[in-house]
Amino acid sequence: MGQDRIRVGIGGLGRSGWGIHSRILGELPEYYDVVAVTDDDSGRCAEARERFGCRTYSSYEAMLEDDEIEMIVVALPSFLHADASIAALKAGKCVVCEKPMATNLADADRMIAAAEQTGQILTVFQNRRYDPDYLTVREVIESGRIGRVVQINMTGSGFSRRWDWQTLQKFGGGSLNNTAVHYLDQAVQLFGEAQPRVMCHMERALTLGDAEDHVKVILHGEGPLIDVEVTSACAYPTPTWRVFATLGGLVGTTKELQWKWVDPAALPERTVDTRPTPDRSYNREDYEWHEASWTVDDYDGPGQNGYYIDLFRTVREGAPLAVTPASVRRVMWVIEECHCQSPV
């Protein structure tokens, strides 16, 4: 497969460009060849050159002129995502854009339009669709074992201050764009095809910047109610997952999950009874619970590397695109609603 590897240029070698994209691409040498990079920090470029034996460019624009590059990874600061992606598409490259897709819905639509006009592939790195805990939660829900899902709570909580560029609104910073976007992407998938209604509250808590670091978003409507909470002001973190359903439920973290359910066939038939209850008691019955669990050690799949494996199959084999711009646009719509409802 060596000759068929996708030749990649990476724009930006920061936390995402180096710590995530470069790492994953380096772990998939049978699929990808990093042939070029660019970053304002010459030391980072030298590090990439040593690791990949690639060319380095002093500017993003210069890298786009490299005809050998087939795919551009846009791992630049969030406020540059839209214009950088559009420029790459117009240069004849397919594009992997780091999340958030853009800093507003209008820019996301410009990106989608550019992909349609150029005929190039555009996808967004919503890599947590490949997280094993999320895949397990989705499998449990779709099995119907715990019944109809009434509510899903998704929480990313901790207590910490932050003072880097992602705390500033002018750079597209804030917890909504940079952390909650992962949870919202999963939430929109779990909500289903219907358009959710959105309620949102955001505020600054511990951050030193002017963007939010406490986010509460509720999606409701024709799907289950989904409560997403991402905060830097929680000294007592709660489970990542809680699922409320009509035959049982699920609880857990990214590392371990447990769920239990009752067999509806084993429940005695009941009807509403308006007669006084014995000893003035509340209705009560005992349940025979069935239980199951999962830990990350049970997972033997590719994890987030699966994003790039699926993308290879799209580019080289014509497989359907796994993370489509349209699916991420739904997330951008939710984010736009949040910014309108709760400006910081």
Descriptive notes:
The chain is α/β, with parallel strands linked by helices and 344 residues long. It folds into two domains: 2-125 and 304-323, NAD(P)-binding Rossmann-like Domain (Rossmann fold), CATH 3.40.50.720; 130-300, Dihydrodipicolinate Reductase, domain 2. 33% of the residues lie in helices and 24% in strands. It has helices at 15-27, 42-52, 60-64, 81-90, 105-118, 132-143, 175-191, 305-317, 325-341, and strands at 6-11, 32-38, 55-57, 71-74, 94-98, 122-125, 149-157, 197-203, 214-220, 225-231, 241-245, 248-252, 256-261, 290-295. The protein has an eight-stranded mixed sheet, covered by helices on one side. A six-stranded parallel sheet has the order 3-2-1-4-5-6, sandwiched between helices. A hairpin with a 4-residue loop joins strand 9 and strand 10. The protein is elongated, with a radius of gyration of 23 Å. The model has no long low-confidence stretch (mean pLDDT 97).
